[in-house]
């Protein structure tokens, strides 16, 4: 095997064909990070002159002049192939240490164990827990992340829209039909209309006390992905009044629902988010996508925890819980442990 530095073009060619591809592991996301001071790197592993693994990492000084090397949605490697994984991580570790790194943070887009729609483990389902063992044996330790470990997703592959609609819970079907009766229309926004999207998400973030992305972020994402048809900003309107909006990635084999907002005074009368979801599920079915990814839920379903209502909303469309491996840190120097200690002190 051979460790290689890749061009963005060679990385992209490999990434688009990988079974665990993710829009997080793209040159476009590297460009987004670069705007905020991160330096992108592209690496790979060749065997018999063929690329068998790859990763996009970004690096930035984050503690005492030392850098975090961050690999969102990756690396793109078979985590159960110990030889390739060990070889790749060994060389990534060496490269990062020699380039001022004190930690490598990874967030694999790799499923851990099969679960049903209620979050229960599926008997005789797939189980990739050996991947976690392999990472821990290499020195990785579980880490916090802003990205979710648990997702909720609907299988689309080769199913017709009518078949998918019929599989929804009765209440979900009723609310979708209600949006149509109420005259709610759904359409895609142009870049010049993104301030409308931003206003809705900003109002929602203030009401629900979460951090919204900036307009510059949304416009940059549009610039990076829209020309390739890999992002959609969708708005629901009634009598030309914007009442709800959502952002979707349409990358690889899946449509991913990422950000959304609704104007509070219209929420209960129109339930416009149901219309938006159905619009994009239909789009996924008609355009050959294999999965509709509702994205994050807050842990395994638990009625006593905050965020359970979000899970119930997503569950109404069918689907199942997806558990990813989670986020991990690979410490490269003693500075990592000093940083973690200081962070713990600050929290208390």
Q: What's the CATH class of the largest domain, please?
A: Alpha Beta
CATH superfamily of the largest domain: Gcn5-related N-acetyltransferase (GNAT)
CATH topology of the largest domain: Aminopeptidase
Helicity, as a percent range: 25-40%
Instruction: Please give the radius of gyration in angstroms.
Output: 21 Å
Describe this structure in words.
- With 348 residues, this protein is α+β, with helices and mostly antiparallel strands.
- The mean pLDDT is 96.
- The strands form 2 sheets. The chain has an 8-stranded mixed beta sheet, sandwiched between helices. Strands 1-2-3-4-5-15-7 form a 7-stranded mixed beta sheet, with helices on both faces.
- Helix 2 (27-34) runs antiparallel to helix 8 (215-225).
- Strand 11 and strand 12 (254-262) form a beta hairpin.
- The protein folds into 2 domains: 2-144 and 326-347, Aminopeptidase, CATH 3.40.630; 153-324, Aminopeptidase (3-Layer(aba) Sandwich), CATH 3.40.630.
- The protein has 12 helices and 15 strands.
- It is globular and about 60 Å long.
Helix/strand layout:
Elements: E1 2-5, H1 8-15, H2 27-34, E2 39-47, E3 50-63, E4 66-73, H3 82-98, E5 101-108, E6 111-114, H4 129-137, E7 141-143, E8 150-155, H5 161-167, H6 170-181, E9 185-188, H7 194-208, H8 215-225, E10 231-238, E11 241-251, E12 254-262, H9 264-270, H10 272-286, E13 291-297, H11 308-315, E14 320-324, E15 327-331, H12 335-347
Parallel strand pairs: 4-5, 12-13
Antiparallel strand pairs: 1-2, 2-3, 3-4, 5-15, 6-14, 7-15, 8-13, 8-14, 9-10, 10-11, 11-12
């Amino acid at each position: 095997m051979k460790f290689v530095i890749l061009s963005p073009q060679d990385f992209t060619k490999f990434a688009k064909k990988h079974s665990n591809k993710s829009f997080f592991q793209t040159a476009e996301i590297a460009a987004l990070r670069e705007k905020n001071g991160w330096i992108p790197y592209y690496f790979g592993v060749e065997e018999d002159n063929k690329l068998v693994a790859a990763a996009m990492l970004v690096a930035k000084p984050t503690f005492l002049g030392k850098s975090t090397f961050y690999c969102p949605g990756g690396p793109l490697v078979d985590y159960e192939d110990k030889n390739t994984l060990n070889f790749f991580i060994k060389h990534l570790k060496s490269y990062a240490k020699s380039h001022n790194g004190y930690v490598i943070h990874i967030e694999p887009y790799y499923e851990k164990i099969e679960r049903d729609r209620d979050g229960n483990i599926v008997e005789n389902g797939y189980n990739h827990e050996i991947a976690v063992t392999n990472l821990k044996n290499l020195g990785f330790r579980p880490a916090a992340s802003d990205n979710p470990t648990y997702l909720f997703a609907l299988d689309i592959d080769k199913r017709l829209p009518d078949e998918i609609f019929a599989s929804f819970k009765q209440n979900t079907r009723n609310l979708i039909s209600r949006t149509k009766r109420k005259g709610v229309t759904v359409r895609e926004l142009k870049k010049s209309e993104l301030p409308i999207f931003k206003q809705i998400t900003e109002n929602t973030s203030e009401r629900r006390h979460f951090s919204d992305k900036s307009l510059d972020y949304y416009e940059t994402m549009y610039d990076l992905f829209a020309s390739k048809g890999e992002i959609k900003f969708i708005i629901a309107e009634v009598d030309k009044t914007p009442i709800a909006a959502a952002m979707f990635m349409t990358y690889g084999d899946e449509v991913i629902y990422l950000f959304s907002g609704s104007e509070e005074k219209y929420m209960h009368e129109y339930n416009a988010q149901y219309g938006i979801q159905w619009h994009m599920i239909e789009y996924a079915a008609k355009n050959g996508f294999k999965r509709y990814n509702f994205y994050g839920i807050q842990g395994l379903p638990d009625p006593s925890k905050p965020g359970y209502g979000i899970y119930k909303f997503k569950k109404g469309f069918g689907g199942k819980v997806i558990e990813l491996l989670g986020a991990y840190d690979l410490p490269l120097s003693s500075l990592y442990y000093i940083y973690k200690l200081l962070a713990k002190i600050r929290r208390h």
